[in-house]
Structure formats: structure tokens, C-alpha cells
Amino acid sequence: MNERLKQLADQALKECDAAKERGIEQYSKRLTELIVKRCTDVLDEDSYLFPELGGYAHDIRKLFGVKDI
Questions:
Q1: Selection from 61, 2, 7 nearest residue 37 by Cα
Q2: Residue 15's domain spans which residues?
Q3: Is 10 within the bounds of a domain?
Q4: Which pTM value belongs to this model?
């Protein structure tokens, strides 16, 4: 696992612990949200350079059930 994935996993674990949601389901859901958000943020950041990427970030978020910001 690379360092960024470790950071996201730690963040998800801390958020679940803080909310007293220690179940694997909540942790898995939050980790997925964080990974999808980070990936789609990269697409959003690059969309001004590559206009053909427009809309893909929204579609990916929708596919995984992660809300747009």
C-alpha cells in the first residue's frame, strides 16, 4: 500500500473512531469515499487542461455513491 492510501486509511479509521462507529462496514464505506473523492478531485483539477475529462468526476462519484461537493 502506498503512503497516500495509508494516510486515507488512517483518516477513515480516526473518523470512525471519533463517531464511535467502529464497524468494518462504516470504516470501509468511509475509506471508499475518501479514495473516490481524492481520485475525482484529481480529475477535476486536470479538467481545465483536458476538457474531455469534464463530467467524468461526477459520473465516478455517482457510481460509488459519493456526493459531489
A1: 61
A2: 3-31+39-64
A3: yes
A4: 0.68
Of 18, 14, 29, 26, the closest CA to residue 67 belongs to: 29
CB 48 within 8 A of CB 57: no
DSSP states along the chain: --HHHHHHHHHHHHHHHHTT---HHHHHHHHHHHHHHHHHHHHHHHTTT-GGGTTHHHHHHHHHTPPP-
| 57 in a structural domain | yes
Q: Provide the number of structural domains found in the chain.
A: 1
Among 6, 7, 5, 30, smallest CA distance to 17 is for 30
69: in domain: no
Please write the tens of the pLDDT for every residue from 8-28. Answer: 888 888 887 766 656 777 888
Grid cell for residue 18: 471519533
